[in-house]
Amino acid sequence: MSAAGSRGALSALKGVGGRLLSALPALFGVLALTFILMRVLPGDPASFFVSSPTAGEAELEIVRQRMGLDHPLPMQFLYYLRDLATGDFGTAMTTGRPVVDDLVERLPASLELTLAGLFLAVAIAVPAGVLAALRPGSVFDHGVRVICSAGVSLPTFVSGLLLIYIFYYWLGWAPDPTGRLDIFAFPPETVTGFLLIDCLLAGDWDTWWSSLSRLVLPACTMALFTIAPLARITRGSMLAVLTSEFVRTADAVGLPRWKVIVTYALRNALIPVVTVSGSIFSTMLGANVLVEKVFSWPGVGRYALDALMASDYAPVQGFVLLMATIFVFVNLVVDLLYAVIDPRVSLS
Amino acid sequence: MKMSPEVQAEAALRPILEIEDLRIAFSGRGGESEAVKGVSLSVAPGEVLGLVGESGSGKTVTMLAAAGLLERNGRIAGGKVRIAGQDVTRASRGMLRPIRGAVISMIFQNPRAALNPIRAVGDQIADAIRAHERVSKAQARERAIALLADVKFPRPEAQARAYPHELSGGMCQRAMIAVALACNPKLLIADEPTTGLDPTTQKSVMDLLAGLIAERGMAMVLITHDLAMAAEYCGRVAVMEQGLLVETGLPRRIFLAPRHPYTQRLVAASPTRGARIEDLVPPGALPALPAAPAPTIGRPHLLEVVGLQKDFGNGAKAVDGVSFTLNAGQSLGLVGESGSGKSTTSRLVCRLLDADAGAIVFDGQDLAATAEKDFHRSPRRSDIQLVFQDPTDSLNPRFTARECIADPLRRLGGLRGRALEAKVRETADLVSFPQALLDRLPHQLSGGQKARVGIGRAVCLEPKLMVLDEPTAALDVSVQAVVLHLLERLRRELGMAYLFVSHDLNVVRMMCADTLVMKSGRIVEAAPTEKLFTAPDHPYTRSLLAAVPSLDALKDD
């Protein structure tokens, strides 16, 4: 038994390794594409970093040389790859710091926001989808559909501004939308970078509360947008499972209603929901840009957007690479979750 | 409250299930239609009632309605259902819940789909126990393991942790029986419990089920399309046709002296030991079969398969050194259980799969030399054609019958325009498919009509060899009779050779002159069909034959 167990664990480990290896070509493709895209975009990055807008051609040339822009493109790419291999993602001209440091500092903010948004969305969408599926065609079902349509048709920057208008400006319930923390609050010692967790570790409840209250509106904004697809897929998958033969069996042997719905129907219905949640998470992380901008959230999305505006190559390339890597990891996590929920699935 | 002996005696005699003038309506796009039009029947405690009929007769719907399990679009439009004396015709979910599983329970046709795919079977049995009795998890689990032992799981303790996909179809049905019997119901409704299982598995599951029912003094309603099975296991048989109960009685009486014309047709269409194709259909209903062509003896064989091997890389070889020959115009049966390699062999022969080793010499040419992916360009493609098992799934749902038949004629026969149209019509006539229906899509055709389209598109190219992979397994017996008759007529008229793959031994016996028996990728016995059926050599052949339920048993008594 234990031999079989360790063999299973080994094959699972092999599966994970295989997945990661097979993602490398895709990552390289993303890398090359971003590199080329950045170079074909109009704009001379050197002109942003000279001392004055009226600087002469000689000064521009010096800056270009310092940035390595005087080499031909393929050479630039090879240098870039060489740097990457040594863990050097380049330096952000806009902040003057290594890109890695900037990203490491900002990623937790984005992750915290996205996870909070996704958690909120799942917490609302799954029960709503299940209830809608239990009474298809009912008032509740139609209500869910209307709210979903409204949520998905409002762009995040509109719904974000709307929430700010109502809850901050009008009702005054929410704090000002100026980042993760009150400027007067002392940030806790950075351990994970997730403020909510770091505050808990430090036992600082005031700051915890302050960061939570600032998280609510942006998280709601993100959730509003993602509830719709989640609720729809839950409803559809639940409807299909409810008419399946094993649910009929459960009814035929007189299992209690909640047991039929939760253990027999819902657990099976969640399988496609997990897949969709994975891709939604990845999309949310990238689509954060607008929400981060509206709420002055110090995340990677806003950082990349600012860099893009300044034709600052290194941070954008670093951001895209980071996002691609996160995509790969999220897909891996989804597959692992699959194996946990569905005994028919094996990683290898 | 203690019951007096008289009341107890009366309760013991009262039917466990009473259905009175039950009408069931389904709402669909075209308004409401009645699927069951006034059925009355009752089941006494300890009785085993067989409910037989073809698809669409309403037998399953009647029983689902009795258990309150109709789908959303169905409703009881009239009549009464009483379970153990209690009127449950319009009972709510809450009223039915304590009855289901504890008084009346059900098992279904496709056991793997009927079990929760992501829950261990032991837990599913324990769920059923805990739904009706206040027992601890550990106790429920213990009883689940005991139940698995009752349904003959070899290692109940370990297998309680197995998921349905880890068990064979037969084991799944055993687990399903354990779930259904967990709370000792008084009545079990078994809806085609062994359809789709191998004959030997079928027999062992049915024997087990019948044993458990008798042991526990339960009543059972066995819903089946298989008359022989009803005859073997039921004390009383009710025959349904198009929502009506046409005849009820003892199996002997019903099957040996049927009174209703429908029962008579049904009994005649069921293949028995000595039957010939001509006997299955009422005399005069179809044109008489032409005389069988004289067998061509000796070489050259039309098909000579030598040392065929196929390994899918999952342990055992699927096909392991199979050799046989087939002469032009002859019919060769290939029988065996699922996993025996008979379907793989048929796919190798018709070049849908590449063999690992071996030769397929067809008309003097080794076909195995051409790769599967190039074979569609070979001029031999039109010489070997196929008819598949499922007439619905094997037709393109967006092709009309005309397009289905025209497609191979256009691609392989190179026909266009008027010549194509003429050939399509000729083919339709050949397979007795009404020309007026040529523009219908598969879902607008009946099962028998779809089977004709499937046969038509295969024979239109006038192949020398037809590979028939369980061509009638999905059809009702009366339709099967007509389709078998058609296949036999086509073979004799067109001089085609058949490789007939089937698990239905009675059908193979009628259709084939010679038969191969396969087990674990090898041919264990090859003999003229009559010899194989009357004096089988191999023990496996004997066990296959013994497992076939047959109406002949009634005659022997």
TrEMBL record, chain A:
Q: Which Gene3D superfamilies match?
A: MetI-like
Q: Carries keyword Transmembrane?
A: yes
Record keywords: Cell membrane, Membrane, Transmembrane, Transmembrane helix, Transport
Question: Signal sequence: where?
Answer: none
Bilayer disposition of the protein: Multi-pass membrane protein
Primary location recorded for the protein, binned into one broad class: membrane
Q: Does the keyword field hold Lyase?
A: no
Where in the cell is the protein located? Cell membrane
Which GO CC annotations does the UniProt entry carry?
A: plasma membrane
Membrane spanning residue stretches: 20-41, 113-134, 146-171, 215-233, 269-291, 319-341
- According to the entry, every stretch annotated as the ABC transmembrane type-1 domain falls at 107-338
User: What GO molecular function terms would the record report?
Assistant: dipeptide transmembrane transporter activity
What is stated as this protein's family in its record?
Belongs to the binding-protein-dependent transport system permease family.
Name it. Peptide/nickel transport system permease protein
Q: Which organism is it from?
A: Albimonas pacifica
UniProtKB/TrEMBL annotation, chain B:
Topology in the lipid bilayer is annotated as: Peripheral membrane protein
A Pfam family (short name) is ABC_tran
Residue ranges annotated for the ABC transporter domain, each copy included:
17-267, 303-545
Protein's cellular compartments = Cell inner membrane
Biological processes, Gene Ontology terms: peptide transport; transmembrane transport
**Superkingdom of the source?**
Bacteria
Q: Which GO terms describe its cellular component?
A: plasma membrane
What GO molecular function annotations does the UniProt record carry, in alphabetical order? ATP binding; ATP hydrolysis activity
Sorted alphabetically, the keyword list is:
ATP-binding, Cell membrane, Membrane, Nucleotide-binding, Transport
Q: Which family does it belong to?
A: Belongs to the ABC transporter superfamily.
Q: What is this protein called?
A: Peptide/nickel transport system ATP-binding protein
